[in-house]
Amino acid sequence: xxxxxxxxxxxxxxxxxxxxxxxxxxxxxxxxxxxxxxxxxxxxxxxxxxxxxxxxxxxxxxxxxxxxxxxxxxxxxxxxxxxxxxxxxxxxxxxxxxxxxxxxxxxxxxxxxxxxxxxxxxxxxxxxxxxxxxxxxxxxxxxxxxxxxxxxxxxxxxxxxxxxxxxxxxxxxxxxxxxxxxxxxxxxxxxxxxxxxxxxxxxxxxxxxxxxxxxxxxxxxxxxxxxxxxxxxxxxxxxxxxxxxxxxxxxxxxxxxxxxxxxxxxxxxxxxxxxxxxxxxxxxxxxxxxxxxxxxxxxxxxxxxxxxxxxxxxxxxxxxxxxxxxxxxxxxxxxxxxxxxxxxxxxxxxxxxxxxxxxxxxxxxxxxxxxxxxxxx
Length: 377
Ligand SMILES: *Cc1c(COP(=O)(O)O)cnc(C)c1O
Prior knowledge:
By secondary structure, this protein is of the alpha/beta class. A hairpin with a 2-residue loop joins strand 6 and strand 7. Helix 2 packs parallel to helix 7. The protein is globular. The model has no long low-confidence stretch (mean pLDDT about 95). Pyridoxal-5'-phosphate binds next to helix 3 and helix 4.
């Protein structure tokens, strides 16, 4: 048996919409793009949505649209995908890494205020693994200190905090559609906001800095080509139509994993969901006990066809970050500890119970072997 880490959920509906887009003759800025933007705006409870070619591009534009400049400081997490901090470095903005909670793997909101300095201009709230930060707290802190808030909701489409959707809280928020996310467009991202000015700037920047009325060769500002094609948007429309179904399947798969972990007496931790949060399952993360050799577990699993990956390495330990970030006063001990223990196991909406059983049985075996092995090193 070969079980991949992730797999997109594509049906005839996605194929039909792509054919419609091809037949429309408008492969860029066509009707599917507008429709996809409307659907994501509605889901995130926003007035405006601007589709782009990746989550990274949309984050970059969000940073620019917030008026962040070289030397400004932004509070964020090191335990994340590198794009969530790269978007700051593109503009010379300094990421200030705040430690995480070992239970949720999200930035620890209780540590945010200590990290604020006169240079702090914003909080980049990354909703890790499909769980939003406690956004009532984040918004309250931001308001008190006059900080902008960008939500990196790239892993959290469909999640909620206090009954409100991820992406609905900050001055701007970003969703992503890489194939391992809840829904995919192959590659893609979207900026959502209630601020018309931010929307207009984003529309201009994604389209070579053209004026909003799209005058062909009038470039008002230095822009980019961050456009999403209508073929991608067509896939996105079908995925959005199926969002409830996809999220339901992922929820079911996650509950099955939790049950199997319990039935097999596996000594691993899974993400803790806070009472006000509704999680939208992105990947399935387990944290191994500290004495277990993670590399050994991964290699044993790989030998039986189960694909697993360490998730995440801390961003501040990446070679390209040397000298370009700051650490909040509390340090980054929890981030570093967790990043050595956590790994992602196969997870996608159409994973079968048989596959999950196979993963957990072999994981139990691998943990046992790694425990015996681990004592030696
Ligand atoms: C996926 C992801 C992004 C954006 O990734 P792209 O591949 O550029 O779409 C940004 N931040 C986080 C936390 C992510 O998981």
